[in-house]
UniProtKB/TrEMBL annotation:
<dbReference type="InterPro" id="IPR036410">
    <property type="entry name" value="HSP_DnaJ_Cys-rich_dom_sf"/>
</dbReference>
<protein>
    <submittedName>
        <fullName>Uncharacterized protein</fullName>
    </submittedName>
</protein>
<keyword id="KW-1133">Transmembrane helix</keyword>
<keyword id="KW-0812">Transmembrane</keyword>
<feature type="transmembrane region" description="Helical">
    <location>
        <begin position="94"/>
        <end position="115"/>
    </location>
</feature>
<keyword id="KW-0472">Membrane</keyword>
């Protein structure tokens, strides 16, 4: 049988009521005959001055310092809504924030939302002609040789070395180059240029970017380095490109594309 101290509410389980309460020392007990498992009666001590409720009779009041605590019974029905906020309502703003982060990260991982540095840069558009080779030459090798040629130029000018395609510089300039070619040679193309915010470029200075065009016959060269030398010479002859190639940038992106009519496009970005 359950016995409850009428003063502090401590429960005891015994056939007979205890002689004294071990918590408050009182000798007044009542039988706990609550048959409804979904209701419970609690004893609280309310401050007569400010109404603050306390679980035990332990003056002074934690809120106002008053010493007059009155014993009250409180019945709680767990089937009813309670006024105190529960775990979900208290945590709702934080849980929502966590959910938003998880959803955004999840969508970024599958490429639905572009998050620079996480989902990767957007894929460049398709452009007429082969983006990887012209005749027997690898355009990727031409790009690498162009970078080496520019490094030689910078070394002769006492300018610091650069990283090729650091961050998303290569991806950005590839997108820009293919967009330029597609606009020129594909009547059905209606795409837009690259959105800089979708690329993890991380420039340390104002970027310089452009697409250089030349009518040089790429098929006339028997090596990637020879074609790269020709392109580098042509670009260094243009003041704007020469300045971009020689400045104190930390990285550069290069993209070479040969159009259907043989025009060579060289996308270039330094930052």
């Amino acid at each position: 049988m359950q016995w409850r101290c009428e003063w502090c509410g401590r429960n005891y389980e015994s056939d007979e009521p205890p002689a004294t309460c071990e918590t408050c020392g009182r000798e007044s007990f009542e039988a706990d005959t609550d048959d409804d498992p979904f209701e419970s009666e609690q004893i609280v001590w309310a401050c007569a001055d400010c109404g603050r409720e306390h679980v035990k009779h332990s003056p002074p009041c934690a809120r106002c310092g008053g010493h007059n605590l009155e014993r009250q019974r409180v019945t709680v029905d767990v089937d009813e809504d309670v006024s105190a906020p529960g775990y979900l309502s208290v945590g709702a703003p934080y849980l929502l924030g966590a959910l938003v982060v998880v959803v955004i990260v999840g969508l970024a991982l599958v490429g639905v939302i572009p998050v620079p540095g996480l989902s990767g840069p957007p894929a460049p558009p398709d452009a007429p002609a082969d983006e990887e080779r012209t005749a027997s030459l690898s355009l990727a090798e031409v790009e690498a040789n162009l970078h080496d040629r520019f490094e030689t130029e910078r070394d002769s000018e006492g300018v610091q070395s650069r990283t090729l395609d650091g961050g998303d510089t290569g991806a950005f300039v590839t997108y820009l180059t293919r967009h330029t070619v597609a606009e020129r040679y594909d009547d059905g193309y209606d795409g837009d240029g690259p959105d800089p915010s979708a690329f993890d470029i991380r420039c340390q200075r104002q970027p310089a970017v452009g697409v250089f065009e030349t009518a040089v016959d790429a098929d006339a060269f028997n090596s990637e380095s020879a074609l790269a030398d020709e392109l580098a010479t042509a670009m260094l002859d243009v003041t704007e490109y020469r300045s971009a190639i020689r400045n104190d940038a930390q990285r550069e992106g290069i993209s070479v594309h040969v159009a259907p009519d043989g025009t060579v496009f060289v996308g270039y970005l330094s930052c």
